[in-house]
Design goal:
The chain has 794 residues and is of the alpha/beta class. The chain has 19 helices and 38 strands. Among the domains are: 208 residues, Nonribosomal peptide synthetase, condensation domain (Chloramphenicol Acetyltransferase), CATH 3.30.559.30; 144 residues, GMP Synthetase, Chain A, domain 3 (2-Layer Sandwich), CATH 3.30.300. The radius of gyration is 29 Å and the shape is globular.
Length: 794
């Protein structure tokens, strides 16, 4: 069953409403049902019998919002308060489906009163607007929700609820207590999640039982004390700050093992002694060029030993390096240069001519030239650099057409690498393959980790195929590599017998990948992280093929799950919310954010109250990841997707809004664009970055008042649309990196919008997924399909 992921859901009718509690069972093939009970709780002083059901309904809605991302919630309700002994079989024609739109600023007492006053009038016309509560006979709407709530005043009445995945049973005892029970399907929910749901429900009910007139819905605490205690234990181990500079850690290894290999590369090897000598010579040279602490220096290289020497030299000179790629368009490079006030670039013979006239000082590195440089008179070359100085700047996608520059400092990276190496048991035996492009975030880990640990940085030669990758791993005798799942699944274990650890990340792990490596001696590790938090902040090295999205435990710092709408609301174990990352591995922030009008929204300015309550001795910075996740009872975290428009493809982070911003330059005011990541419904095809276009002057475009859904076409198979697509593609090539340029273009006859006239991204994605699946199916049947237009009505 799908997990709703859009809090801005606007639905036209109850028949289209989905309020499905997500799966949590580790045994989806299990049969039968489980049941757990909670300790009896007070009934409360009531003015009428109707008050208890109203409170129970309100409490269940507030419980559902902890586990389902939505604005509109529904559940089935059935009660039995008669005084006969008849059994209470689930009659779906008599049960009622309660539907309500939750408003966080509404007083809890008002919310309860609305349930109390609502009569069982069948209203099946639309999802409630404003603060309405609608009811409808649930017999024909089983597919709308999978939870039910029962209230009975006679414990002898038997209840059967086999058709629902989750059923809350509340019984009024003779002692005027409420006995709560959760009955659940074993194929849907595991015992630990069931316990979490029931304890959350009881905790919320107890709060609203004595709610004051001023208590608002968003102030209700959904996290029971027992959960807080467990979460406190999970988040106890935050490492102290490593107050050292990255280059000092590497130089320590150079002095300890000068004759051992530090870099093994296709263009020659370097010992630690040679790396020390050459990087010191170059560092002294760039200091003469004006590099100081907080000076940014560009670095652009093909894979080589020169790139390693250059980055280490920049660090030793006190500066911070910015790795770029020569294929980036001039507009992109110009933005980076102007905003960082960079005047120096280190590069090799491949790119030196490309940058002359763009960067004031271009330094071409060559082995003979490096050895001719005079030895440094001072060691260290720069005595002023401190652990809180910048060490690198990482540029990633931004939402305004301007790339976002993340400033990392020495102590953050040093702390993260220290924890990363400890968790994966890395050391002087580590031979890390430097696979990623130097402009990508993970390349910093591939270069720094082995050198700081006294291991070997393995630099491969040019690679065009997976066979080339396997060959380079064998030749360099690499024993650890980081790959995206898209690449990793194509690698055969038998072709890389030297590989001991294969780290994967950037995308959810497909089942086939986990199965493929499960029986191998190579350890599969799922990594999770981002540039703002020194790349890796969680890892999972015990992967089950049914849990490919489980990212495990924090590697550095702590990870918290909060309400996506409020960082002040800590969610219970099992709740679905936004990942908040805390610790000493966070970056300093974004470059020139004030000048660009960009806020540091991702970095919390005010520490949530719950952190000072659970860990009063901590004062680390915190970062809102924008990712949705769920904390399991074992302390591991499952990644559930993005809450915004940031996409991940082949390990690269793409802001859909930035791509759309660039595309709009080639569209009229009446045209529209939606960019999203699509794959087939069955997940068998590689994902594709897709641009959905509505062209107002196109012959096939229709008025947006058309009922139903728009018709989708293959834009490249239509003459008029193809011309516009070619214009867009040519324009994007000058403004964006290649990985941010859509590979698939779909024409829409009109643009789906929500009731509030906002772009309905969720509908576009659903329609696009079905279209994409149909396109691939047609292409497998018809070789001439690529030359004809595909029409798929929805």
């Amino acid at each position: 069953m799908p997990l709703p992921t859009d809090r801005n859901t606007n639905l036209n009718g109850i028949d289209r409403l989905k309020c499905i509690f997500p799966y949590s069972s580790k045994t989806p093939d299990a049969t039968g049902r489980g049941s757990i009970h909670a300790s009896p709780c007070d009934l409360g002083i009531t003015s009428s019998e109707s008050t208890v059901p109203a409170r129970l309904k309100a409490a269940w809605i507030l419980t559902l919002q902890c586990f389902i991302i939505a604005d509109v919630f529904c559940f089935e309700y059935n009660d039995c308060v008669a005084d006969n002994d008849a059994s209470m079989d689930q009659d779906r024609d008599q049960a009622t489906l309660y539907v309500t739109r939750l408003h966080r600023s509404e007083p809890v007492q008002s919310f309860i009163t609305r349930f109390e006053q609502k009569q069982r009038t069948l209203v099946a016309t639309k999802v409630p607007e404003s603060c309405e509560i609608s009811t409808v006979a649930s017999g024909s709407l089983y597919h709308q929700c999978n939870t039910s709530l029962y209230y009975r005043t006679n414990a002898r009445k038997e209840i059967s609820c086999q058709k629902m995945d989750l059923a809350i049973l509340v019984t009024k005892s003779l002692e005027s207590k409420l006995v709560m029970e959760l009955d659940y399907s074993l194929s849907h929910t595991d015992a630990e999640m069931a316990q979490s749901i029931l304890s959350t429900f009881q905790h919320i009910y107890t709060q609203i039982l004595n709610a004051s007139a001023t208590l608002l819905i968003h102030n209700v605490d959904p996290c029971p004390p027992s959960h807080r205690k467990r979460i406190q234990e999970f988040t106890n181990n935050v490492s102290p700050v490593n107050k050292k500079c990255l280059h000092d850690l590497i130089i320590d290894q150079c002095r300890q093992r000068p004759d051992q290999i530090a870099v093994r590369s296709w263009d020659g090897d370097l010992t630690y002694g040679e790396l020390d000598d050459l990087s010191m010579r170059l560092a002294s040279h760039v200091v003469e060029l004006g590099v100081r602490p907080e000076t940014f220096v560009l670095s652009c290289f093909e894979k080589s030993t020169l790139a390693i020497i250059a980055r280490l030299a920049i660090l030793r000179a006190g500066g911070a390096y910015i790795s770029i790629h020569a294929s980036n368009p001039p507009v992109y490079l110009e933005s980076v240069i102007i905003r960082t006030k960079t005047t120096i670039l280190l590069t090799d013979s491949y790119f030196v001519d490309h940058f002359r006239g763009i960067v004031p000082t271009v330094v071409e590195l060559a082995p003979k030239w490096l050895r001719s440089l005079p030895k440094a008179l001072n060691d260290p070359v720069c005595e002023d650099v401190q652990p809180d100085n910048a060490c690198l700047v990482l540029f990633t996608s931004g939402s305004t057409g301007t790339p976002k520059g993340i400033i990392q400092i020495h102590s953050s990276y040093a702390t993260a690498i220290q924890d990363y190496a400890r968790n994966l048991h890395l050391g002087s035996h580590t031979r890390y393959l430097s696979f990623d492009d130097y402009a990508f975030d993970i390349s910093n880990l591939e270069f720094l980790v082995p050198l700081i640990m006294g291991g070997v940085c393995c630099v491969p030669g040019p690679m065009k195929t997976v066979e080339d990758l396997a060959s380079q791993i064998r030749i360099l005798d690499a024993n650890i590599v980081f790959l995206t799942p898209t690449v990793a699944i194509k690698l055969e274990p038998a072709d890389v017998p030297c590989l001991e650890i294969m780290c994967v990340g950037g995308e959810p792990l497909p089942k086939d990948l986990v199965r493929k490596w499960a029986a191998q001696s190579t350890r599969l590790v799922n990594q999770y992280g981002m540039g703002e938090v020194a790349i890796c902040c969680a890892y999972n090295d015990q992967i089950h093929h049914l849990e490919g999205s489980k990212i495990g435990r924090p590697s550095s710092g702590a990870i918290w799950i909060v309400d996506p709408a409020s960082t002040e609301t800590l969610l219970p174990i099992g709740g679905v919310g936004e990942l908040i990352i805390e610790g000493p591995h966070l970056s300093r922030g974004y470059i020139d954010s004030t000048a660009l009008g960009r806020t540091e929204a991702g970095f919390l300015k005010v520490i949530p109250r719950w952190l000072s309550q659970l860990h009063p001795d901590r004062a680390h910075r915190m970062y809102r990841s924008g990712d949705l996740g769920r904390l399991s009872a074992d302390g591991k975290i499952t990644y559930l997707g993005r809450k915004d428009t940031i996409l991940k493809l082949d390990g690269c982070r793409i802001d859909a809004l930035e791509v759309e911003h660039q595309v709009r330059k080639f569209l009229s005011d009446k045209d529209s664009i939606v960019v999203d990541l699509l794959d087939t419904i069955d997940g068998q095809a590689d994902p594709s970055l897709t641009a959905f276009l509505y062209l107002d002057n196109h012959p096939l475009s229709t008025a947006p008042v058309v009922k139903g859904a728009p018709v989708l076409y293959d834009a490249m198979s239509d003459g008029d649309a193809r011309a516009k697509v070619e214009e867009i593609k040519n324009g994007l090539a000058l403004a964006l990196p290649r990985y941010m340029i859509p590979s698939t273009y779909v024409l829409m006859t009109w643009t789906p919008r929500t009731a509030s006239k906002k772009l309905d991204r969720k509908k576009v994605k659903v329609l696009g997924q079905a279209f994409y699946s149909g396109v691939l199916e047609e292409m497998t049947k018809d070789k001439d399909y690529a030359h004809r237009m595909k029409l798929l009505p929805m």
